[in-house]
Known about the structure:
Largest sheet: 16 strands, mixed
Helix content: 10-25%
Number of helices: 11
Shape: globular
Oligomer: single chain
Radius of gyration: 23 Å
Amino acid sequence: MxxxxxxxxxxxxxxxxxxxxxxxxxxxxxxxxxPSDVSRRGFLRGAGxxxxxxxxxxxxxxxxxxxxxxxxxxxxxxxxxxxxxxxWLAGDHHIHTQYSSDAQYRxxxxxxxxxxxxxxxxxxxxxxxxxxxKIGVEKVNPDIRATRExxxxxxxxxGLEWNIPAAEHATVFVAPSKHExxxxxxxxxxxxxxxxxxxxxxxxxxxxxxAGIKFLGSQVRARKVEAALFLANHPARRGIDSPHEIRNxxxxxxxxxxxxxxxxxxxxxxxxxxxxxxxxxGYYDNNPSAASFPGYPLESYRTWGGFDWMTSTVxxxxxxxxxxxxxxxxxxxxxxxxxxxxxxxxxxxxxxxANGKYNDPVYTGKTLTTAGDFxxxxxxxTNVGATSWGYxxxxxxxxxxxxxxxxxxLIKNLxxxxxxxxxxxxxxxxxxxxxxxxxxxxxxxxxxxxxxQDVPNWAxxxxxxxxxxxxxxxxxxxxxxKDAFTAPNTxxxxxxxxxxxxxxxxxxxxxxxLDKPFYVRVRGTDGNRTQPGLMGAAVDPVGPKLDxxxxxxxxxxxxxxxxxxxxxxx
Length: 570
C-alpha cells in the first residue's frame, strides 16, 4: 500500500510559535481551521486528549520527515554518531563533584572521564543544600566554564540535584547563559525542599514543587535562559514519589518536566562481595516508611534488571502515563559520587560547611571496592537524537523524547520508526518520541535497525543481544484517579530472538489496521536473567528479573529501553 503523506501534520495554520499544530492551538477558533484540523480537534476532544498542556504533549511532536530535513552539520567540536537522520549524542544528566557534601571529584575529573568513556554531554548536578544554595551554585560555575573551554568536544551543562518538596530528588539544568547561576540560585533558594519551612504540610510542599517547575518555565519565557529541564531521579527508591505528584509535575509545565530515570545510577553497588559492595543496584534497598505512597507494592523498592520498577514493569506506572498520552521520557545515568575501584579520597583539611566544597582529591593507594558508583559513561548511556551538535539541540532532543538508553553498551546504535506499512524510504517514518497521524483503517508497522556490539565495553567483554521485545499499549486518555499506576491494555506483543552471528539487524512488526490510538516502545536484553513480569506471563512472559540485594552483578544483566512512539487517528 502506498502511504502518500497521510502521517504529515497540516501546517497551513500553525501557531506563531511554529511548533504547535493548529488543531492544538486553542487560540484558533474552529471556524478558522481546515476541515482536517476540525476533524482532528474533534477526535482529540472526544478522547479527552485535548486540554491543559497538550501543546507540549505527544500530540505536538514534529514528524520525522520534518526533523530529518534539518541540517546535521557539526560545530567545530562536534561528535556523536549519525543514524536515522539524527546525530546521536550520548550523555549523563546526574553527576556530583566536590561541591556536593557526599562526593569528592573536581568538575574537570568527572568531565574528562565522561569524555574518555564516550560521552558527548554531561550535567553537573551537585546536591541542593544550605551550603550549595548559599555559595555552591556560584563557586562551581567557574569550574564548569573552564571545563567547557578545555573540553570543547564535550557539552558541559550546569544543573543541580533538587530536593523536590514532599518527594525525592530531581535533576534540574539550564542551557548555558550569562544568567545560568542567577536562575539556578534563585530556584534553589526559593524551592528546594531542604530550605522550605519545616512546618510546611505535605500539601504545601507539593504546591511548592509545582511552583518551582513553573518558575523554571517562566525563566525560559523571560529569556533568562534558552531552556530548562526537570528529570525526576531514582523515583521508586523510597516510595515517596506518588503517582499524582509525578502527574502534577508533568502538567505544571510539560516543556520543563519531561521525565524520570528509567534506571538509577549507583549500579556498582550490586557487585557481590568481596569484589564489590555487596548491596543493591541503585541503593534500592529500602522499605516503606510513613512518607511512602501506601499503594506501592514491596517489589517497587527494588530494581529489576537494574531498572526502576516504574519503568521495568510492563503495564506499570510509566505505561499508565503513556496510555494517557502524556509525553514522559526515561533516561539512565551514573549518579557518580565516589567511584568503584578508585584510589583517591577528599583532600585533607576540608571544611565543606564553610567553603561549600571539599579540597581537591588526593591519592591514597587504597582501592575502593565498596564504592557504589561508576564513572560517567562507564556503564549507562542516555542516547539523544539531536538535529546537530549543541547544548540546545541536546535539550530539544530530550524534550522531544528522541532517546534510547542502555547499560554496559549492550548495543552500538538504534533507529526505530513507525511507518505506514510497506514504506521503506529513509526520510519517512516517525522516530522515538514522535506521533504518527494516520486515517483509521491504515496499516502501520515498526521498523528497528540495530547495530550490534562488536567491540568490548569498559568491563572488557563484547555484550551479546539475545532478545528484543515490542511493547504496545492502548491510549485511553486521562485517568479519573491521578494515583493510578497500571495500564491494563499494555503488553509485550512480539519477541525477536537475535542471532549472535549478526552484525546488524533489521526487524519489522506489523500493528495491522489502525482502529484505536496506541503507543509502542521497545526493550532488549542479553537474556541472562529473566522472569515473568509483575502483571503476569500473559502481559510480559520474559521480563527482567528482580535484583537480589548482595548478588546483583550489573555487568551480567544488560538491557536497553527506548522511549515510545504514538500512533493516533486523524
